[in-house]
Every structure is written in structure tokens, then in C-alpha cells.
């Protein structure tokens, strides 16, 4: 069985979980505490990040962006990038937007400060980081709302990897109750559509160390 | 004529300049001072980063990773990722390694602190960042050397995007005289092979604000 090494709140692992489910590719999840730097894991992925995918053939594919490009080429029955060049450019542009810009400006400031930093006993959350994270999240929600008002899905007419990249970041933040959905009704409506996809079910059923997310997290009509 | 918006020391713009030259795709370079946030440029690339490529057809392709995937699909006469899945995974893994890990651990600490920060009058270089940058650079040179000793090119038997991603980061640092090549003779030998490629010529001829790089920068036998 295909194996995906992950951490439950990693937005990059969530992106790949969503994409594998959307593509109906079964996989087994394995928790990888990357901070322990297990030698066996370092051999699979020298950067020691999650996720890493291991195929039945033994092929090891580290890094969420590398995995998503690999899946697009290895399972061409479904494309999540688009059928023509302008669509593929726009999907990939937005994937980078959410993987890099949204992550650096929002997710790292909130999720890292409020969960990982405390779990690893690296100190209390920094007030400045939290303030920046919430302010940036508002701007990003407005941008997502703007895209959702002008297009059927974030990158255009078709559902794409951009939707999963954005939803993955937001679902991690939503799990810790950090998303004020009232900022943008259009973004909320788009996210409700994402949550109601079958591919989202497993992510919505997540419990972490027995901890449940806020009630609206798994509510399709939040 | 195809246009590439760039900054001369941006390792990401350099990666695309090298790849376009390797693919023999002619282009015109245009300087984009991203910190000025020109409205016309924000329309091309809302993330306001360099590089951005504009094709003759008018197609706008922002972001070096998006551009390199686009070129691979739009000009399939040459592949810089490899012909089979394991090669493509390994090329992309290393591209991410240099674009993200090498950049965050080395280039940002040295190049940002020593050039951009001063140019934008954001203060003097931080001693801690410089120390970390030089220490990390040594480890990265040893890793490049290890790869070059075990393989013909960094990702395997064939020259790939991984070589250009690594060479682009290093050429920016070499321009400001920050690379101690004595750390790894194997890395130095690999970089000498990269420098002697015709695709490297324009990058080696760079002058920035009339400033010349150290003499060994353009020397093929340094």
C-alpha cells in the first residue's frame, strides 16, 4: 500500500492528502515527527520535511510540490493543473501563492507560534507574529473571495490544485479556530464547496492527540 | 521578443536566464525594481517578485518554478527534468532543495544582508545572519561536492534543472565574492563545468551599476 508520511496539522501534508483522495489513490498515513530526525526518514527525504510519498514500486517522492507534479505525470487520467497553457500557468501561480506567500505571511505566524513552538518548548507565541498573521489572513481571505467572485474555482473554470493548496492552508488554521470566515462571504462559500467534496472527508474527521477541532470545523454548513 | 523581468542578483531570475539560454530561447532582459511596486508590474505578477516571463503571444508566466515547468511543457524538444519518473523526481527534489533550503539558509543570510538591505537603507548586515550564512554555505558546498562525486551531474547521469538551480544561487554569491571554493574541490570542479557552458556566458558578463565582480567570477579556470 502507498504510504504518506505526514504531520496532522502540516498544510503541505494536507494538500497531498486532499489530492490523493480527489484522485482516488488509496494510501496509508504514517505520522513522522520530523524534529526527531529519524535516520531512516532522512534517507527517504534529506530535507526532513513532511510529506513524503512512498509508492508501491518503492519510488520515494519527497516534498508536496514534487509529489503533486509527480501525480500529475504518473496518473494522467486526471489533471488538476488544467488542459491548456494559460490554465496550467494560473494554477501553478496560485499554488505557489498559497504554498509560499500565504504560508509565510499567515500559517507560519499563527500555526507555528500557537502549536509547534509550544509543543517543542521553544517559548510562548510572539505577539507581533500573531498580530501580523491575523492581519495578513484578512487580506488573503479578501483575495480568495475576490477570485471566487470572478471565477468558478480559484484558478478559473475548473477545480485545480490551487483550490487544494488554499484549502489545505485554511483547514489547518480552521482546526485551531483561527479563521474569521465573516471577513469574506465569497471565500466562505468557496470553502464550503471544498469541504463538501468527498476528498475532504478524512481531513474533516481528524482528531489530534484526542483533541477535537471547534464544532464548525467539520460542519459543511458553517 | 520574449521579455524577462529580472534583478541582476536574484538567484531565481538567474536560474531562468540560464535555462532560457540552455534552451536557446532568445529573450530581452528588463530590470524590475520590485520594491517600487509598479502598478503595471503588479498586474503581471501580483506577488511582485522576479522573474516574470512574457511570451510573444502575450502569455504572462510569473515565478521561476512556474516558468521552468512551463518551459518544460511548452518546448518539449528538450527536457531538463529527465526522461523517466525517478530522474524527474530527483531533479525536482533538488530544485526545491536549492530554491528553498539553500536560499533560506545561505543566500538570504548573505546576499540580502550585504546588498539589498543596504541598498534599501534597512540597516547594516546582522552579524548573526552572516555567521549562519557562511556556516550553512560550507555544509551546502560539501553536499554539492558529495553529489558531484557520486554522479555525473547533481541529479544523476544527465544535466538537469537541479544543476541550474544550484549554479544560480552560487553565481549570485560568487558575484559578491562570498564563496570559498576551497571547501570542496568536487563542488568547484562541477561549478567550473557549469561556467564553461555557453548558457553561462551572459551571466558571467554581468556588471551591476558599473560594479565588476571579483576576477575569479568569470574565470573558467578559477
From TrEMBL, chains A, B:
<feature type="domain" description="GST N-terminal">
    <location>
        <begin position="1"/>
        <end position="79"/>
    </location>
</feature>
<comment type="subunit">
    <text>Homodimer.</text>
</comment>
<dbReference type="InterPro" id="IPR036282">
    <property type="entry name" value="Glutathione-S-Trfase_C_sf"/>
</dbReference>
<dbReference type="InterPro" id="IPR010987">
    <property type="entry name" value="Glutathione-S-Trfase_C-like"/>
</dbReference>
<dbReference type="InterPro" id="IPR040079">
    <property type="entry name" value="Glutathione_S-Trfase"/>
</dbReference>
<dbReference type="InterPro" id="IPR036249">
    <property type="entry name" value="Thioredoxin-like_sf"/>
</dbReference>
<protein>
    <submittedName>
        <fullName>Glutathione S-transferase</fullName>
    </submittedName>
</protein>
<dbReference type="InterPro" id="IPR004045">
    <property type="entry name" value="Glutathione_S-Trfase_N"/>
</dbReference>
<feature type="domain" description="GST C-terminal">
    <location>
        <begin position="84"/>
        <end position="216"/>
    </location>
</feature>
<dbReference type="Pfam" id="PF00043">
    <property type="entry name" value="GST_C"/>
</dbReference>
<dbReference type="InterPro" id="IPR004046">
    <property type="entry name" value="GST_C"/>
</dbReference>
<dbReference type="Pfam" id="PF13417">
    <property type="entry name" value="GST_N_3"/>
</dbReference>
